[in-house]
Amino acid sequence: MRMRKKKNLLPRLERVAEFQEKDPYARRGDWRSWKPDCTALYLEIGCGKGTFTVETAAAHPDVLFVAVEKVADCILLAMEKAQAKHLTNVVFVCDDAARLGEMFAPGEVNRLYINFCDPWPSKRHAKRRLTYEDFLKSYRAILPMGGEIHFKTDNRPLFDFSLTQFPRAGYTLSEVTNDLHADDPNVIMTDYEARFAKEGARINRCVGTVTELPEQLGEEPELGLLHYLPEDLEHLEYTPYGMADVIEQEILRRKSEARKAAKQAAQG
Ligand SMILES: C[S@@+](CC[C@H](N)C(=O)[O-])C[C@H]1O[C@@H](n2cnc3c(N)ncnc32)[C@H](O)[C@@H]1O
Question: Cys bridge to 121: 177, 181, 187, 225, which one at CB 3.0-4.6 A?
């Protein structure tokens, strides 16, 4: 979903400047001074238009929320929502989540939210997934032992792949579900989640808790997300976000293979 460029981006950003940390690197180790009476710090990466961040922050006034998002047009909308609710416990950073270790000190973040991240379905792009083993290991630098990652996605192949990655990066899994909304109809939804739920998606969710790194890793799981799809691609009830093109290509590839096989069989 591409976002249209916002008109008057700069003056609008100025009007919500109190919600933005422009120098997150200087804040490293000192985030809690933003709200000295906070009991914990929760971080969301890729917050998009911020509905989840703002509603979750409103529901937990004792927690400081930091949301990192790389697209300025998105974060503007998120900050305008926070301002409309007069929140004092949420702060936004416009930057790349790959640099979290430079923004937060060891153990500074109690909980990390990853909601509906981009799936990067092909094998060669697997390392870009925010739940790839290397990314999960990098979050250990800012979470304490016992710190948590809360992960939600509509994308079952991405979810199943991610379940293979958490233990490899030293997290124990809990609260694993393939139908979050059936389990709890009152969850706070993200912007994408609300859209996907309307389209009939079942929402997957799990919690990963930081523990010791495993001594042995075993064989690397399959990296391409096609591997995690069911055999019958033509009758999928729901096409996960970011997978339409690869599924279409795979259907065409299989048809072409079947045609070739039939031709060879006919030729004897
Ligand atoms: C599919 S959208 C989901 C937005 C939101 N979490 C939701 O559920 O509505 C993914 C978001 O993550 C952001 N994003 C992707 N990679 C990022 C990165 N490395 N650092 C910060 N933001 C990132 C994108 O700009 C986009 O807004």
Answer: 225
